[in-house]
Design a protein that fits this description.
Elements (H helix, E strand, L loop, with lengths): L7 H12 L5 H20 L10 H15 L3 H20 L29 H14 L4 H12 L3 H6 L5 E2 L4 E4 L17 E4 L2 H14 L14 E2 L2 E2 L2 H11 L2 H5 L28 H14 L4 H8 L3 H8 L4 H9 L6
Helix pairs in contact: 1-2, 2-4, 5-6, 6-8, 6-9, 6-11
Amino acid sequence: MSLEPIEPNHALELYLADRENSVTQATLYSHRSRLGHFIRWCNEEEIENLNELSGRQLHEFRIWRRVEGDLAPATEKTQMDTLRVFIKWLESIDGVEQDLHTKVLSPTLTGNDNIRSVMLDSKRANQILEYFRKYEYASRPHVALELMWHTMMRVGAVHALDCADYDPANQALEIIHRPETGTPLKNGETGERFVALSEGVCEVLEDWIEHQRPAVTDEHDREPLVTTPEGRAHTTTLRGDCYRYTRPCVSTKECPHGRDIEECSAADYDGASECPSSVSPHALRRGGITHALSEDWPMKAVGDRANVSKTVLEMHYDSRSEEEKMEQRREYLDDL
């Protein structure tokens, strides 16, 4: 077989373009993010032609990524499984040796390895939201994090909301799958639902819409709920908001890690994700779900609100300890 030279960055763009019509935008974003680490490694190793890739190099990347990213087994598996798919695709366009994908190894998960545990706890969430209400009320980051915590929505659902989806009379949001105009939901039409809002969240939304929201439309002439002066707030922007405002130094002016805030690179606008205490939107969502369960919400009610099945809810999102679950069950002893 004659291989055709291909540069790493170009290969990634071709791969993403090929997958564009067969996967959701959320999946496409995830693959770009995961494979971005591989492209970065190729640049560091001065690999300019993927024809040269070997099984040994793929193993070296795996070790590099594990150490450099301080990855949990579940995260390492996800990233290496995505790389395997990418390498197999490269085989189909004569970019690498045939069957090279079989040499991409990933961990075999056992026990609780596949259960994610990072989340924002309710104490920190309240601290952050109090900061917003006092210092940056009804700003875009305030609206984004208030919705993520209160509704347990995925970041893609927040991105997909239009002003018309908010019903102030019924204090509710309608979440709609609109792939034809650029805002698909992760679970498609099964992700569509109505979400009730508290009076406090409604006040924030109404003040945002009336006083703070940049009055712009997107490329489909829709009026996004969460905007920047350029249009609909991208999921990358919303993730950045989450990382920036979950840094303890923002809401408390103190660093729990003993760093000098003035000198800390994670205190920079673009360095927020480097902070050991900053978290992603997914961790915010997991924290909101755990908080609701801890407040004795029925599991079905939480699952319906967050659009997640009972099985996935129990395995990946319910971060209550076994002792906490026992104490909550204790309340039902009098009914036996």
